Amino acid sequence: MKPTSFRFRTVALIGLLVFITVQFFLIYNTYRVNLEHFFIKEKNIINDEYSKAVTNDLLFPGGRAIIDTFYFRNRNHLDSLHLKNQMEFKKASRQMMDSILNALIKGNTIKPILDSIIKIKYKLANDYKYALILKEFDISFKKNNYIQLFPYGDSSNYKQIVGGHLLKLLPSDQVTSLTISSANDKSTKIIFQLYIQPSNKTWTILKTMMPTFLLSLASIVSIVSLFFITVNNWFKQKKLAEMQTDFINSISHEFNTPLTAIIIANKTLQNEKMIPQSEKLKPITDIIQRQTTRLNSLFKQTLNITKANKAFLNKQPEKIAKKKKKIVNDYKIN
């Protein structure tokens, strides 16, 4: 492969890859924007209705009663252990949290509330997945001095699913995040979240993006087609130029050979030592010399034009009368 051809194809291929990459990021960013704004009005409605449903409660109606049952039963015991034995405090607090989490999972009543909001009252979606999350549970034995009981240890990013089957929690699916605390001594601070994802979410977003996707796909197909058409035409032109060069070289040889033979033969006729000169022979040899010189000049000009070389105009002063006389003599010879 010639260096010029390789450079041409490399530059064209790099340009094509850059264009496809730009189109990919355009589609991806459009998807991200649609994802962030998807279901946003519906989420605001669900947030308002859910917040009303858990007013003066935790996680779901009845959730506070479940938590308070275990917390008040163990509060004083945990307070004494916190001052005396940290190991026993961690053990007892974990046992209490396990009991609270199990009771919350069993007593979860959020599904009927969500169904009434999403399917019945507002008809926001035909089907959906949800996750009710307990993110953090802290207790305080002194005012605003909270001790984290959950998540356990170093699992700061762990979230306990109290209800629902939505396992992949995305920020775009978060409907509510509430923090409930009290400024009193021996109080709790609880952070819980609600995630909701409509069924066929990805397909719904892709359908809204279909015009953008189709336009990008059409532009990519067009550019790829133009790329291959251009490369194909370039190789055809290159092959044609090579054939033209071979033809010019061949025709130059085929034309110059007889022309050279005529010139040499004419010089032989003009040589007085080899052939006796006569009055009629000299004008004929002069005509042959002039016409072969003129023919050779015209042929060179034709080749230069065929090769697309820059033409030069060679100007020389000539006597018109003398030229006319030569032309008349050329055609007067029998």
From TrEMBL:
Transmembrane segments: 12-31, 213-235
UniProt keyword annotation of Transmembrane present: yes
Signal peptide: none
Lineage: Bacteria, Pseudomonadati, Bacteroidota, Sphingobacteriia, Sphingobacteriales
InterPro entries: HisK_dim/P_dom, HisK_dim/P_sf
Gene3D superfamilies linked: 1.10.287.130
Any one Gene Ontology molecular-function term assigned to this protein's record: phosphorelay sensor kinase activity
Domain Signal transduction histidine kinase dimerisation/phosphoacceptor, residue spans: 243-311
Catalytic activity as recorded in UniProt: ATP + protein L-histidine = ADP + protein N-phospho-L-histidine
Annotated protein name in UniProt: histidine kinase
Pfam families associated with the record: HisKA
Keyword Hydrolase: no
Group of enzyme by EC: transferase
Keywords: Membrane, Transmembrane, Transmembrane helix
